[in-house]
Every structure is written in C-alpha cells, then in structure tokens.
Amino acid sequence: MATYKTTGIILRRHNYGEADRIYTILTPDGKISAIAKSVRRIRAKLASHLEVFTTIDLMLAEGKNLDVITGARIRDQYPLSADYQRLRTGFLFLEMADKLSQQQETGEIYACLREGLDALAIHPPPAVELAFKLRLLYALGQQPDVEVSCDSRKPLQPGATYYFDVTQGGVVEGAIRDGAALSPAAVKLWRVCLRSSIHQSAGITGAQAAAEESLRICDQFYDYMYGIHCYASDI
C-alpha cells in the first residue's frame, strides 16, 4: 500500500469493531477519515498520540475504504480539559470546523482552528470564541461590515450604538425588527477581531465583556449564512 504523511487535528472519533477506532481529521489540504487498528487495546502505542485538542503529525497507508493510521506524533497539545468552559468551547470549535469544512476549502479553517485552540488555553473563553468566529468569517470571505452603515453607507460614528442586520451582513443606524444592538465597545472589538490574530483580539482590555455582550449576534449571523448552530452553551 502507498503511504503518505500529513499534519492534522482530530475533529471526532468513534469506536469500530472490537479494538479499532475511526478518526475524522482536518488537515490543511482536506478532511480525511482514517482507521487506527487495535488502538483501544491496553498497550496500544498509538493511543496516547491520537487525542482530541492536539495537532498531530501522521503517517498513513492508503486503504480500499479507509486509510490506515500507521504512525502518529503529537506536535502541539492544547490543555483545555481542566476547565469546563474552555473544554466546552474547544468542542464547539471542532464541531464548527467539521461542519464548515463540508462546504469550504479547509486550509483557512485549519489555520483558524489551530490558532483558536492555542488561544483558548490562554485567554478568556468568551473573548476567544468571538475572535475565532469572526476571524473564521474573514478567512472564508464572509466578514460582517462594521466599518460603515449598511443602510446609509456612512462611516460609523465613535460612541454611537448601532444595530446588526444579518440579512445585510452588517450594522445599520436604526433599530430593526429582531435586530440586536451593538455597543461602541462591541463594534470596536469586532473590528479588531476581523483585522488581527485571535491571540491579539482575545487579549485586549475589555474583550471578555464586549464578547459576552455580542456573541449571540455573531451566532445569529452564522445561522443565517451557513445554517449552523454554533452556541457553546449547547455543547
């Protein structure tokens, strides 16, 4: 069998047969499903290298139905399991990457996921969650407009409160039905998230409060654009 190497992040896994396990893995070049033989046996050497919340260097052999994992080495590990909110948010990131990679090229999704998991181990989860979601929208070319008003096309005024219209993909000046207000602090944070790295955005002063205030608006935009529910509270 032909063999190949890749680097990836495990999105999900499920047991198969008596001792095998099938993994869904996101790589920079695509999403693959692969099987690890006998990995659930007590002395299986591969088991400790095939965990969620890790970036893994993999060796695989091409198979008829599923490729076979023949070697694995952890490159980066993201320590999230000790904190429930970080763990829950991490699983949300994996689920979002899994769903979005069915519709999009995976390179940008992989890069955002890797940085998001790394930032999640350091910064407050709400701030990282918003930064991850907005940066992912930017990477996919679907960033919301928080520079000018979508209805008047006028630049946003400092200190003013605006409303977010998911159908127009940005902020508007007047209150709208089913629209939610974005405070000046939230608008500022959204701009930073769309321009900067996840680490930088989540680490700025006041990011947690502004993120907690505006995460639901971002989630509603994902619902409208992609038809996916991406609430950490649902995980």
Largest beta sheet: what is the strand line-up? Answer: 1-2-3-5-4
End-to-end separation = 39 Å
Strand tally? 8
SSE order: EEEEEHHHEEEHHH
CATH topology call of the largest domain: de novo design (two linked rop proteins)
Q: List the uncertain runs.
A: none
- CATH-level-2 architecture of the largest domain: Up-down Bundle
Strand composition percent: 15-25%
- Helix-strand category: alpha+beta
CATH superfamily of the largest domain: Recombination protein O, C-terminal domain
Helix content: 25-40%
Main β sheet profile: 5 strands, mixed, barrel
Q: How many discrete structural domains?
A: 2
The mean pLDDT is 91
Number of H/I helices: 6
Radius of gyration, CA atoms, in whole angstroms: 20 Å
Instruction: Characterize the overall form.
Output: elongated
CATH class of the largest domain: Mainly Alpha
What would you say this structure looks like, in words?
This protein has 235 residues and is an alpha+beta fold. The chain has a 5-stranded mixed beta barrel. A 3-stranded antiparallel beta sheet has the order 7-6-8. It starts with a strand and ends in a 9-residue tail after the last helix. The protein folds into 2 domains: 3-77, Nucleic acid-binding proteins (OB fold (Dihydrolipoamide Acetyltransferase, E2P)); 84-234, de novo design (two linked rop proteins), CATH 1.20.1440.120. The longest helix has 20 residues, at 207-226. 36% of the residues lie in helices and 25% in strands.
